[in-house]
Automatic annotation (TrEMBL):
<dbReference type="InterPro" id="IPR036188">
    <property type="entry name" value="FAD/NAD-bd_sf"/>
</dbReference>
<dbReference type="InterPro" id="IPR023753">
    <property type="entry name" value="FAD/NAD-binding_dom"/>
</dbReference>
<feature type="compositionally biased region" description="Low complexity">
    <location>
        <begin position="418"/>
        <end position="437"/>
    </location>
</feature>
<keyword id="KW-0285">Flavoprotein</keyword>
<protein>
    <submittedName>
        <fullName>Ferredoxin reductase</fullName>
    </submittedName>
</protein>
<dbReference type="InterPro" id="IPR050446">
    <property type="entry name" value="FAD-oxidoreductase/Apoptosis"/>
</dbReference>
<keyword id="KW-0274">FAD</keyword>
<feature type="domain" description="FAD/NAD(P)-binding">
    <location>
        <begin position="4"/>
        <end position="301"/>
    </location>
</feature>
<dbReference type="InterPro" id="IPR016156">
    <property type="entry name" value="FAD/NAD-linked_Rdtase_dimer_sf"/>
</dbReference>
<dbReference type="Pfam" id="PF07992">
    <property type="entry name" value="Pyr_redox_2"/>
</dbReference>
<keyword id="KW-0560">Oxidoreductase</keyword>
<feature type="region of interest" description="Disordered">
    <location>
        <begin position="400"/>
        <end position="460"/>
    </location>
</feature>
Length: 460
């Protein structure tokens, strides 16, 4: 019987990891469990082209290798994992055995205490269906659209709503948009752009209470302001999608705890990637953290697949320099590194540089893609991988993390020679991987008969 690798999560990280398995010569069965009814799609467009109607939902579908030859189980979320039995359960009580697993479940939109989430006019934005529902609500109503949250998604949503010609209020608990992630100078320019385009901005406020009425929802703020909205979108952050791992014995206190090679701590033959993985990046002090960026799902998914195949003892550390971007009112903000680590800022050839312990740990630029490309290698140079550290460590500041596990037996899933793993620390091209192409995307698959919905029969 051939080996089976189960990929839990049908998004970007899951499909890119599955592609890498095939590239490395894995010829066993790949089963992809997805909680969604859609094939993988381009998530960054949800707050932009899908909301505005510029793209049809089908335009958002990701392209992937025609040689993937995977069994897609749509509408089949993983419900429970038993690492000792190497089994995962899906709806209907079906038990699926695996020889290797890649966890790529991503994150879910955070709930907001007190918000009337059962009201059909109150939304979150995480999935394609969420975006379609928001767009429908906006088009079928009149009046104000209220967006709660001033991060990337909240700001992009406000921009998209203004593009549609609708009034929008952006309600933010922090005193500045983007939470200072991009630096004060760029953050101020983004704030000014929202005001210039007519966004009603309320910063540094909380929500005292909500009043549901037939014509809309009243939002009473801590500073005395009251907004009356026909549509509300909660964009207050995300939480790792790990509920299905409760009772598995794994550390899921903030995502799935991994070592520096993205092998899951406390389990054999399981790796994790993307937003859900919490691992020590040895390029940036080795502290445990998650990275919720598009490119991390791509690079992390590929690296996790490589390390799963070669086994824990031969795996390479995953030490990326993260990159991110946002586009609002035609202005493109791009960043690299981990600006959140910065304790001070400086000018880096016209970019905002973030400094920690005398080293450059992040850069952010507004409409300066060329400089971002030329300065990103400096982040690699100043932040060398700390080879002297073990592949998993418990930093002093980590108090909720389980103690380092005992050595686990390592079983490598056979990979045909002469293919070798290459969990690269440096991406092959910063310029080509800075952001996904914005052209319309179509999916492809080599064996339509392998696509299945839930536990039902295969359908063409």
């Amino acid at each position: 019987m051939s080996e089976r690798i189960v990929v839990v999560g049908g998004g970007l990280g899951g499909v890119r990891s599955a592609e890498r398995l095939r590239e490395m010569g894995f010829d066993g069965q790949i089963t992809i469990l997805s909680a969604e009814r859609h094939l993988p799609y381009h998530r960054p467009c949800l707050s932009k082209q899908i909301i505005t109607g510029e793209w049809h939902p089908d335009d958002s579908l990701l392209s992937f290798s025609g040689d993937l030859d995977a069994e897609w189980r749509l509408n089949s979320p993983a419900l429970h994992l038993d690492p000792k039995k190497q089994s995962v359960w899906v709806p209907g009580g079906e038990e699926i055995k695996y020889d290797g697993m890649i966890i790529a479940t991503g994150v879910d939109a955070k709930a907001m205490g007190g918000a009337p989430r059962h009201d059909p006019r109150v939304h979150v934005l995480r999935t394609l269906d969420d975006a379609v529902a928001i767009r429908k609500n906006i088009r079928q109503s009149q009046g104000l659209v209220a967006v709660i949250g001033g991060g990337f998604i909240g700001c992009e949503l406000a921009c998209s709503v203004r593009h549609m010609g609708r009034d929008v209020a952006l309600i933010v608990r922090s005193p500045a948009l983007l939470g200072g992630v991009v630096g004060d100078k760029i953050g101020k320019k983004i704030t000014e752009a929202h005001i210039h385009h007519g966004v009603r901005l309320a910063t540094g406020v909380g929500i005292k209470h909500w009043v549901r009425q037939p014509g809309g929802i009243g939002i009473h703020l801590s500073d005395g302001q009251v907004f009356f909205a026909s549509c509300v979108v909660l964009a207050v952050g995300a939480a790792p999608a790990v509920d299905w791992l409760r009772g598995s014995g794994l550390d899921i206190s903030d995502g799935v705890l991994c070592d520096a090679t993205n092998h899951v701590v406390g389990a054999e033959n399981i790796v994790a990637c993307g937003d859900v993985a919490r691992w020590p990046n040895m390029r940036f002090n080795g502290a445990l953290r998650r990275v919720e960026h598009w490119l991390n799902a791509v690079e992390g998914g590929r690296a996790a697949a490589e390390n799963l195949l070669v086994g824990r003892n031969h795996a390479k550390t995953y030490t990326p320099v993260p990159r991110f971007w946002t586009e609002q009112y035609g202005m493109r903000v791009q960043g690299a590194g981990l600006p959140v680590l910065g304790t001070d800022t400086t000018d880096v050839n016209g970019l905002t540089g973030f400094i920690a312990n005398g080293k450059l740990v992040g850069i952010v630029g507004l409409e300066q893609p060329g400089r971002i490309i030329t300065e990103t290698p400096e982040l690699f140079r100043q932040n060398k991988v700390e080879e002297s550290l073990t592949v998993w460590t418990q930093p002093a500041e980590e108090t909720k993390v389980a103690a380092a596990p005992e050595s686990l037996p390592t079983t490598a899933i056979p990979v045909p020679e002469p293919v070798a793993a290459r969990a690269s620390s440096v991406p092959p091209s910063v310029s080509s991987s800075m952001s996904p192409p914005l052209q319309r995307r179509r999916h492809s698959r080599s064996r339509p008969e392998m696509v299945r919905v839930g536990g039902g029969r295969a359908r063409p």
